[in-house]
Specification:
Elements (H helix, E strand, L loop, with lengths): L2 H11 L1 H4 L7 H8 L8 E6 L7 H4 L9 E5 L2 H10 L5 E3 L5 H8 L3 E7 L8 H16 L3 E7 L6 H14 L3 E2 L10 E7 L2
Parallel strand pairs: 1-2, 1-4, 2-3, 4-5
Antiparallel strand pairs: 5-7, 6-7
């Protein structure tokens, strides 16, 4: 099935969990993944794998199956992802349980956390649970990467999220606006390494 169609179907099925109508562009993926160099002892954890728009570019950066873990909530997307990326660890699970899922995986320390979740549209309780999980990884020394769409960048929920993360992890590094994405977006990086 076409990636755009599958993404749209997932959005229509559950718009609060998907939060976008199109997958991330190759240009946004490149910005999200710039400088990521994982290995089996310092893995990448991807939250909200979706259709694999970021994952397909991560694939070339990971040296082995043991240096990547992806968590996606939508069962249908996970089935397709596992067909498309049989050499990657992608499981069906809830990002609000990411720390436990990672521990049970037996994989190395999470060094890079690539988060593609739509925090601005998630219910407050869900966002708070996911941020609690992220904090556990950040406390152990991690680099967090998220993106925010330009049209919502200055809306109160987006500002509140950035302020919360700034208060916990310091100032973020913001990318230039990625225009070749629907809609255009910024990437943001915080590091506790």
């Amino acid at each position: 099935m076409n990636e755009n169609l599958q993404f749209l179907q997932a959005f229509l099925k559950n718009p609060l969990n998907v939060g976008a109508i199109a997958p991330s562009s190759p240009e946004l993926a490149a910005e999200m993944l710039a400088g990521i160099t994982p290995h089996d002892d310092n893995i990448v954890l991807e939250l909200g794998v979706g259709t694999g728009a970021i994952t397909k570019f991560l694939r070339s950066a990971i040296p082995s199956r043991g240096s990547y873990l992806g968590i996606e909530l939508d069962e249908d997307l996970v089935k397709t992802l596992n067909k498309n990326y049989p050499d990657m660890n992608i499981i069906c699970g809830n990002a609000a349980e990411a720390y436990r899922i990672h521990e049970e995986s037996g994989l190395g320390k999470v060094r890079y956390l690539v988060c593609c979740l739509p925090f601005v549209s998630l219910p407050k309780e869900v966002s708070e649970m996911v941020l609690t999980e992220i904090e556990k990884f950040m406390d152990e020394g991690c680099e967090l990467r998220i993106f925010q769409y330009a049209h919502g960048y200055f809306l109160p929920p987006a500002i509140k999220l950035r302020e919360l993360l700034k208060n916990r992890y310091g100032k973020s590094r913001r990318s230039p606006l990625v225009l070749k994405n629907v809609p255009p977006a910024f990437t943001l990086t915080w590091s506790t390494v």
